[in-house]
Amino acid sequence: MNKKTKIYLGLFSLLLISIIYMESVKPKPINWFPSYVGKHKIPYGTYVLRSELENIFSTTKIDDVKIPPYLFLQDSTKQGTYVFIDDAINFGEDEFNKLLQFVRRGNDIFISTHGITIDTLNIETEGIFSTAIEQTPFFKLMNRNLSSKEFKFDREFQNTSFVKIDTASTIVLGKTGYVNQNEKRVAEGVNFLKQPYGKGNFYLHTFPEAFTNYFILKSSNNQYTASVLSYLDDSKPIFLDAYYKTGKSRITSPMHYLLSSKSLKWAYYIALIGILFFVIFEGKRKQRYIPIIIPLKNQTLAFTRTIANMYYEKSEHKNIAEHKISYLLEYIRTKLHVPTITINDQFYTYVVSRSSIDKEKVISLFNYIDQVHLKNTITKEELIKLNTLIEEFKNPI
What we know:
With 397 residues, the chain is an alpha/beta fold. The chain has helices spanning 3-25, 47-56, 69-72, 93-104, 213-216, 222-229, 254-260, 262-281, 300-313, 317-335, 345-353, 359-374, 380-394, and strands spanning 62-65, 81-85, 108-112, 124-127, 136-141, 151-152, 160-164, 171-179, 185-197, 200-205, 238-241. α10 runs parallel beside α13 and α12 runs antiparallel to α13 (380-394).
């Protein structure tokens, strides 16, 4: 290694060390991904909610459901409140029918998501918009026994409300909208309702951010979250959905675990850089020349032609015919999937149905095969005729 190369290598190493140092002292950026996972402590995780549920419902059994509702509700004896909180939830038809049966038996379902359309309950949502230049979203509960305060949210999000509801049976529990810089309402809509169904109820809510770490720990917003949760029946078990989540609740691969840790990530990068250096400076070819070995030719076709010529030159037409008949039967078994143990009318029907050959031609072919079987020897012309019939069978025009 000459002096110039050493200088370049030293400068590159110094640059690499500088980059590593700057990355190590740089503050970790905030992860605003909306995961809604109970184990995540990021702003839009639900770690605080999951931790406080045990205190809010101290006498209620709380289970995390990590399987699809369709499988969980196979047991028709389950009783309780099924809670779904996520950015978006899409139930399959069969799965939602299971949820309807669950509510019809006298249970409750609480769903908080930005948009949901349920034709069965005559419910539909859409976004709320206003023409104000400066606007702030507000949230308010309609129950006078709960806090009448209007709660605010200072992050961009998809604010939605229910625009199609069954007014005959639906109970409005909360509203949302926007106020301008003068605290005057410029848009408003229903964002929390109760819909009876059978012996139970659906609680539908369009602001899942209310259950995130960021919202609960912000000012006095936890009052709003607690008030919404107060509608859940604490006399029944609570089934907290952990399946329909935007984020992953667990590490799914070794590489994910490796890159999730800052120290391990940089150790991995340094190892890759070291391998790169090795390839550049030490990865030269050192083994002896490897000669090119030409693979042996496939002589199967030549061997087959040789054997065929031997049979033909010895005029063993009968032997050749028997081989061709055997290959024909094998073709029928493997390609047409028709057993050849018994050649009868049912056999002809199956062959005709699975090929494009007329039944008369099939019967004619096998009648001729029977004639060949009965003879001790056959002529060249008879062999050619047999071959022609077989080729017409395999390759019909």
